[in-house]
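INFO batch 0412 | record 1 of 1 | parsing
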Amino acid sequence: MKIGNLEINLEELANFLVEAKKACWAGSGEEELMMGGSKLLTFQKGNFHYIDNYAGYFQIAGNELVRWRDFDGQRIWQMNYSGGMLPEFQGDKKLAKETNDFLREMLSRVSIRKPFRGLESPVSDSVEDENFRYFTKTEGDIERFCGEESIFSFQKNSKVYSLNYHGGIIIPK
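INFO prediction complete | emitting tokens
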């Protein structure tokens, strides 16, 4: 795909995104604390440089960005996300930690077919363990997409977490 003056192989980009996500938040990568309290995770391989910058705990907002070659390179892909624990569960630190641990596991299962958040399988809309069920649904593909993920707690018999995300390829003037 032509992105400005660059020729990008979307399959290579998808493979890179999966690797970067597994090395960063989903893989408990090293976070750099930024001014204002946001956290930054980075990953570099080949011609791609990945940044995940987010703030919050019970309620979060952030973005993931891929640039060509380095931190100052041309932006080629971006995803924005916002959400977190539902309001009635935002004070429950134990539940939030358990939910985040489960979410980390689900995000480590991100697929090349849909390299956005957690596993979205063609066979099933959800994945579960003994405590939680994870659900994600995305419309679109790596070039342009939007989606939502949620986590249901069997202990609370309720959805406890929800997050929306959207993004895609960035094409300059």
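INFO post-check: The first strand starts at residue 2 and ends at 3.
INFO record closed
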